[in-house]
Amino acid sequence: RPTEGKVVSLGSGTRDILPVGRHMYELQLQYSFSLPKTAETILNLGMLSDVLYESEMESQLWMLYDSNKRLLGSGDAYPSKWSIKLEKGDYTVRASVRHEKRELVDKFTDTPLMVSSKLSSPISLDLYSSHPQAQVGGKKISTVSISPGRCTAVYIAPLSTDKHSKGATLGQFLQGTATFAKDEAGKKADVYSFKYILPEGGKKKDKGGKDKDKKKEDGAAYEEAIRDCKIGWLAKLGYMTKEGQDLYTELCAAGGNLTSVQSARLNNIMTVPEVERDWAAVLEQADRVILSVDQAQLLAWLGMKSDARENAVEVKKEMDKAKLQLVEALTAKGEAMLEKGEQDKEKLLGLYTDIVKYTDQTDVKVFGFMWKLFRQQGLPAKALKLSVKQLEDKQTKDNEKVVLESLQALGWDHIVRFIELGKPARYPGEYQPF
Q1: Per-residue pLDDT averaged across 120-141, rounded?
Q2: Could you tell me the pTM of the whole model?
């Protein structure tokens, strides 16, 4: 469904006025979607896609943009003609529908946009000769001979729910073709379209929490929910405000596991723009987070091949959370040390060693520290390699700025000049007009 929509009158000037001074009205719709991986993508406005000159509308057009407002492609009717290969990321589609009667374009305000992506590899479905065989996954059909004019039933077993419905939402489906002839000529001539409606992805069952409601007292559950709510607000309130400081003091005084409290406080400090950030406060708070995490226990859990305990799911959830908080704290500490002018190579490389115990150096969460460390250690080429990878994964002005700093450190001014001159094309200020 569209996230934005408005109708505008195109009466100014002569460009959009029909003969005898008739005004045009334009419905402007905006859609947003994300792709989890690179794929050939087709955009389809169902009510408008199969007609062009026969359409009751005066015109129709959609334009596709990336997250930087850069135009990637456009199209109108017959969507199969406008296939576009898109990388993983977030995209915006702006659609325009025009007619001289406003009440007609108003009817298209909630027009859905269908986004179709080609699968990286085709999915084959299993066919069975009987319903019982399809139920139990028994003997599959290999070949069936049918006399002319006769019919026979075939049964299709459902796909693996976990594999293909993961992340599926209402309205998603798989589309392909079905052929029944044995010879190649028949397969090309006798083709049927096939749709498989995906069910909404199921929620994972918490094996370790079957009796959680019975084991935990209602009062304790209430207190825990209140504490979680306060921790969530701690990350939002300004860390220098009286409310933020009072809430932090209250949570620390309450005791218990303080890792989440200290981590929320650190995230709060890190939300300040980098040029205004208090790096001394960051360093102090990061140390508190690091001290609150039992690293020996975390490393022991990471080294386990399998966890057969009854509460393995709960333990994994807690350990993953602790690992994320620890990595964020180590990264913040490293950035603070570099910003404060730390020159002790052993300390910095020791921190680098701690980080790579838990994650890869190309992880986006540790990028801010890694490229600064390489630059400080006189390794601009390594910083450039890391920053280029981040820019390829997510093209933003901030990531490009890091690339430019690394290039300047190498003395590659000709590349810097080339990139600078191309900025207006890569980062337009506004969407292109229809």
Answers
A1: 84
A2: 0.73
